[in-house]
Design brief:
- This protein has about 300 residues and is mostly helical.
- Helices cover about 60% and strands about 5% of the residues.
- It is built from eleven helices and five strands.
- The strands form two sheets. It has a three-stranded antiparallel beta sheet.
- Helix 3 packs antiparallel against helix 6, helix 7 packs antiparallel against helix 8 and helix 7 packs antiparallel against helix 10.
- It starts with 5 loop residues before the first helix and ends with a helix.
Length: about 300
């Protein structure tokens, strides 16, 4: 895996050795690719999964009479997770910069949205800015962590990727609309159409184990947005925050939030694109062929 951390390099080498005898074709080969895909996705989600586990644990077992408010505990836990991600070399310092930027962008929006009554947090704890507990920014950072990690874990390449300045303008308009739609027209459907136009021709190429696959980039946005929507349902059930319609009693978050998360994906992709410049697939590379050149040197020698 290119640009991987030392920990990931060791895991990748051991995984290739373990899977060296796996069939190169047939049903077992497809099953191997599917399992590796799931494992890589799980590894990319490690920050978000850890934070979600803490949210659930705090909902189920955190004592109501504890000296430390639950929101403050969540903030301390989120900081600890982030420190461990860097200390155990699960994230690079280069990636940490964009994750911090996610944190800042998310916190600014949280301050505005809570003031407008879009959602609310329990009024407890001291580690907060206004009505927003500091752990909220880490939920956006978790999205940033996933994006930068999935980029290198799957060695993403992009055919017909739009010019980055165009994507930056689009992301800026999307971010602005999260604020301005409270005062003027909500342009989310116009922006949604703009996303399809700008990214519609782009195809994402990614490697799982031995094979490379392709997917329209817009489809990947939708799948990630759906995953975040599912995580949002778990987070609101845990009481991390509540929408106005959930205050009287929890119920699943409406599917309309998928559009918001889909548009947020564009902001996420643009931020990550400034850390990892999108690269096109290799000219003349045949999709679906075996990637012997991407295997560790030790495995190449053993299979030569």
């Amino acid at each position: 895996m290119r640009n991987s951390t030392p920990v990931e390099q060791r895991i990748d080498e051991r995984a290739h050795r373990f899977l060296a005898t796996a069939p190169a074709s047939g049903a077992k080969a497809r099953l191997t690719e599917f399992v590796v895909f799931g494992l890589k996705q799980g590894w990319a989600c490690i920050f978000g999964a850890a934070l979600l586990a803490v949210l659930l644990a705090a909902r189920l077992w955190y004592p109501g009479n504890a000296g430390l408010a639950r929101n403050d505990f969540l903030t301390v836990a989120a900081v600890a997770i982030q420190i461990m991600m860097v200390a155990f070399k699960l994230e690079t310092l280069r990636e940490l910069r964009v994750i911090v930027l996610f944190h800042v962008v998310g916190t600014v929006m949280e301050l505005f949205k809570t003031d407008m009554g879009s959602w609310s947090y329990e009024a407890e704890g001291v580690l907060r800015v206004g009505a927003v507990p500091l752990f909220s920014g880490f939920m956006y950072a978790a999205v940033g962590s996933y994006m930068v990690r999935v980029y290198r874990l799957f060695d993403l390449k992009f055919a017909a990727y739009p010019r980055r300045w165009i994507t930056a303008v689009l992301a800026g308009a999307i971010y602005a609309n999260f604020f301005t739609h409270h005062y003027i027209w909500d342009l989310r459907w116009v922006l949604l159409a703009a996303v399809v136009i700008v990214y519609g021709r782009c195809v994402m190429h990614f490697r799982v184990f031995r094979r490379r696959f392709r997917m329209p980039l817009v489809a990947s946005f939708l799948l990630v947005a759906l995953f975040i929507w599912l995580a949002e349902n778990i987070a609101t059930w845990s009481g991390a925050w509540l929408y106005p319609s959930q205050v009287a009693g929890w119920h699943p978050v409406g599917l309309e939030k998928l559009v918001a998360w889909f548009l947020l994906m564009i902001i996420s992709v643009v931020l990550v694109a400034w850390v990892y410049k999108p690269q096109p697939p290799k000219a003349g590379g045949k999709e679906g062929r075996h990637l012997q050149e991407d295997q560790p040197a030790a495995l190449k020698q053993g299979t030569a």
